[in-house]
């Protein structure tokens, strides 16, 4: 049965821009990006709930759905706030379509989500044969992007990929017959999928958050301490921001910036219960007020900020997002878009260095896998800013950085790259570098 080996189906010219130096590693990387991480991870808000209590809730949900064949739920060393859920046993997954069932088509974003355990929400349904409520259907993703929304006739394409079996909760008239008021809610409840990830939907709540392992590791690498001043330069959607506050015991100052008012508004319900967090709609490429005097702790009035204002800075930079898995089809179609990200990343980095106090820690991270946005950015930073040096990005769950000409191997080993090789867990593509500013 067909399954993609590259997210750049129909657009192979972009592939060469991902790993320009380490080109031999490209083919396995592309195939890995199409596959689904097998382990589901939640981060527990330990200010509100014990890990054991949240684990019990998750195990009860799994037992109600899968009975005695429920997957294992467990913790990892060095990440005590995280819970992992194993994939289902093979007999509970559905690897092949049932020829007797009707079909529905979903877009690739929806398809990727259901492979990671989501159900199908109404906006993700592209087309559906005439079905009754409660009927089982085969679910396919349209990799070509050519399936006509609302089509009733079965969509035929060599590039449609079978994802699993679901139960219809909404019929065609509910999904497609009211353009003025688009349908919302779960349209198809997944019964099984080809990835083996449990179809639980998102169990996120105030006590626990569905979050990828590298994003959790990233904040552990930052290692925020109670009473410190921390800056999260590109904070939306706020998941790392709340983690920072939790590790500080919600004592200190956490400044969260994002240049989108709508994204900041969406963060407020999630971050409103933390007394240490202050959010601002602000462009972090302009975050430095170079002539302003330094402010005592607790006296920030908002951005821009004086130089050397922060003890630790997280720059989880805007990026191409090519580390997302499974990536059934890449939304980036032009090389100029891919090449635009290092420019904004460097502008943000320049601001971060000025805002960091001597002796302070700067963590740079991206959810992508390109050399230009990862190792090449680090090489540029070390050459440009003599006051910075790399330090080991621990705790270590990823592999080392990729080698570059003129970049010492000992420095590559201080980086963390999450990819098909070297990582200790099956997760998304990600990159972490940790710098310290000299005293």
TrEMBL record:
Organism of this sequence: Drosophila erecta
Gene expressing this chain: Dere\GG16283
Protein family per UniProt: Belongs to the class I-like SAM-binding methyltransferase superfamily. RsmB/NOP family.
SUPFAM superfamilies in the record: PUA domain-like (SSF88697), S-adenosyl-L-methionine-dependent methyltransferases (SSF53335)
GO biological process: RNA methylation
Residues of the SAM-dependent MTase RsmB/NOP-type domain: 135-438
Keywords per UniProt: Methyltransferase, RNA-binding, S-adenosyl-L-methionine, Transferase
Pfam family, one: Methyltr_RsmB-F
Name this polypeptide is given: SAM-dependent MTase RsmB/NOP-type domain-containing protein
Residues of the active site: 367
Single GO MF descriptor: RNA binding
CDD domains: AdoMet_MTases, PUA_NSun6-like
